[in-house]
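Case study 2.
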Amino acid sequence: MENVWIYVLQILLKILGIITVALGGVTVMNWVERKVCGHIQNRHGPLYVGPIGLLQPIADGLKLFLKEDITPTNVDRGLFMIAPLMAFVPALLTFAVIPVGPHLVISNINIGLVYILSISSLGVFGIVMGGWASNNKYALLGGLRSAAQMISYEIPLGLSVIGVLMYSGSLSMTKIVMAQQGLWFGFIPKWFVIPQFLGFVLFLVSAFAETNRLPFDLPEAETELVAGYFVEYGSLRWAMFMMAEYVAMISASCVIVTLFFGGWLPWPVVGPLVEGVLPPIIVLYAMPVVWFLSKVALFMLFFVWVRWTFPRLRYDQLMALGWKVLLPLAIFNIFITGIMRVMQLS
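Prediction:
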């Protein structure tokens, strides 16, 4: 009985730690995005609330918390209230199977990748609910756009990871990372991004579309839809939609790192040098988390850079890219990967 309570306590501590890091990452990325945006546009960004504006996200959070929560008339109150939760919770649930380290994963299930693909696709229901319940034509159009976008890009997203499954032979996220151990020629890491570069590009582009980030933010295009599916939202409900986008972005970065960049495995050349001078207990428990978070941070910066660099696509271009370009390339990648694996195993 005592062992059961210890196991439950360990799981609860893992859940608390990962949720804290995820939500803390939302706050940090809010500040980082505004600073990067400012420098790209030749201005400072947040500057006055705290040192170099570090406390600006906290001030914004307090403002949203204290702001009056207005529910417009003629809305579907039940769906209107639950929609932000439906968008936020699925993005948070994906962290349950993402291994931050060899000993730090909430649930190491054998179908972790299937779990992520299925849970992450539920977030669109919150967006569609918000658009429908708002009783606003712009919100409804935003919700419909999001549903069409999800259908168009969920298929190449799922097909792009089949090559990884061929190489790893498992759907477990932990086993996928373990399959990337070792080096080619003594210095090239056996990360799946090398044999699966096309699959990585397809997954990355589809992840931008799935998270509604520029240049694929058509569901909330300010120029034609004012704000899209959350145009009628304010206060904490609006904040929850924004948090859902950032949490989904962090989750997508974590999945990319796990599938294609070795997860918690150290950086080549630099990793062994750093770990060679550290105590074994730090190398075993702390450094995997450091390597994992450093890779995730690079992809988060890439998400931010892309948003403030590339223009928004037209809707017909968005649909054509998904169905006419990404889908055929995903099928081609599976075909080529199958041939390569047969040649390697024969």
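Residues 69-345 form one domain.
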